Amino acid sequence: MLRLENLSKSFGEIKAVDNVSFQVESGEIFGLLGPNGAGKTTIIQMVAGLLKPDNGRIWLDSIEALVNPEATKKLLGVVPQEMAFYEELSAWENLFFWGSIQGVKGKILKDRIHFYLEKTGLLARAKDPIKKYSGGMKRRINLIIGLLHQPRVLLLDEPTIGIDVQTRLNIYEVIKEAAQAGTTILYTTHNLKEAEELCDRIAIMDEGKILASGTLKELITIVGKKDIAYLQGEFSLEKAQEVLTSLPPEAVLSLQEGKLVLALEASSSLPPLLELFFQKGLTIHDISIKEPSLESVFLHLTGKELRE
User: Rounded to the nearest 5°, which phi and psi values hold at 61?
Assistant: First the structure.
């Protein structure tokens, strides 16, 4: 179990993490979803003991991290965004080295290395220097290093950046199996689809704060059962705002120059709204209607899109 209580961290005038609290249960994959700069990595670094929070408390199981950091570090596995291995060494040599440092020895270590290399499809390349590996292969080695000592809590900081679909699915499988074995997993991502597919619960972050958290189903209730309409065309913010006075404020999820996202009953509310646009001389080029999703929730909470 992992618990954060009123965690805050500033860098000068920038509030990177602002009074964040949440709890992740054993066997749960908890996602921190947000854009770059939202505070996700700073939270990972504080939980890992690499940064000291300005305020707040962190518990792993019943151990308070700031009071007994050595004990909590033994419970942790950390997979950073940056690759954490030696390029000149082979995969096997790297895993043997990092596993030994983490306290895994002898046959147990060799068996785990063999298991994870086979699981990730890298066993045939085990003796090759990692510098010859593709980006996706390196990401898999990075993940294995974090798992070798079978941590109680696993911190994953955007572990699928820049990889192909097949590698991504392989990493998902390994992560899900770790969770099924009881590992508590904190997972950061800025990928909406990834959060939907992988995480049991999701916390939406922006500008250092958690804006909402819950299961996907719980989060979608924030925008209700209404249709999500995406409109693109030629219109200024000012002109669009004049038209949108006919809608309740909560119906406007996002408004940008030439782009508009609305939550409404499309069949009844959209035709009269388009008529108002045309009367104002505003052009709509494209309209698409979708069901409520994590994307529409993020737009509703932040007023902006989350891009890859």
Answer: 55, -125
Averaged in consecutive runs of 10 residues, what is the pLDDT profile of the chain (308 residues)? 96 95 97 92 95 96 91 92 91 96 94 95 95 93 95 95 88 95 95 93 96 94 87 90 88 89 90 91 91 89 72
> 106-119 and 91-101 helices cross at what angle (nearest 10)?
130
The domain boundary, picked from 189, 215, 241, lies at: 215
DSSP 200: S
Helix (H, G, I), strand (E, B), or coil: what is residue 247?
A: coil
Angle between helices 237-244 and 266-279 (to 10 degrees): 130
User: Is there a single domain that holds both residue 70 and residue 173?
Assistant: yes
What pLDDT sits at residue 307? 60
Would you state the structure tokens that stand for residue 267, as one six-digit string?
A: 């069949």
Domain at 245, CATH number: 3.30.70
Angle, CA 240 vertex, CA 237 and CA 245 arms, to 5°:
120
> 294: closest CA among 209, 198, 208?
198
Predicted TM-score (pTM) of the model is: 0.88
| CB distance 12 to 54 below 8 Å | no
Would you state the pLDDT for residue 299? 86
Distance CA 308, CA 198 (A): 17
Task: Tokens for 52, please give them.
Answer: 């000291």
